[in-house]
Amino acid sequence: MLVIRLLRTGRKNQPFFKIVVTDKKNPPVGGRFVEEVGYWNPLTKERRLNKERIKYWLSVGAKPSETVHNFLVSEKIIEGKKIPLHKTKKKKKEETESVEKTEASKQEGVPEKTEKEEKETEKAPEQPETEKREGEKLEADKGEKEKREAETEKVEADKVSEKGAQEKEASKEEKETEKAPEQPETEKREGEKAESDEVEKEAPQEEKETEKAPEQSSKEESN
Q1: What pTM, to 2 d.p., does this model score?
Q2: Positions of the chain with pLDDT under 70
Q3: Domain span at 40
Q4: Which of 39, 53, 125, 147 registers the highest number of CB atoms within 10 A of its CB?
């Protein structure tokens, strides 16, 4: 297949390019060509194109390279948009790198990772950090909430215990006040009982003494 492309000539660090019609299989440096249709000097920006011959070869079916296509568009030999060379080179580089990665992964037996997966893996370590921070924040809030609940429960328990102690003391005082009037009556009864027992003890002693008195008098008289 015939192409219209650049053929490098000139010395080292002094490039000079011929615009030639050649077979695609021929090398871009020092290869054979069918016809020279122009030249380009990148140092002086000088350029010359043979429009008639270029149009002829295009009509025959020759395809221009990307650089030559841009030259033809700028010279208005053909109509169309210029091809962004840097992007295509970058794309080609990325394609070659992806092909190399796929070949390496196939050789190693490791599944290939796409660009999307690589981006996700790069973003993956960021997500756990945010999740970790959110989890720590939630745990801290939960701990503070539990602490506050425990404090409120403790305060309520203290209040209940104080209330119970007050009620207990009040009930104790009421019982003591109820028992207070009963004690004198019981003491009074016990005192009366003791007095009656003493009186009963004294009565038989007096009777015995009265009985003994006439016996002593009779004994004295007999004597």
Answers
A1: 0.38
A2: 86-94, 104-129, 177-188, 199-223
A3: 2-84
A4: 39
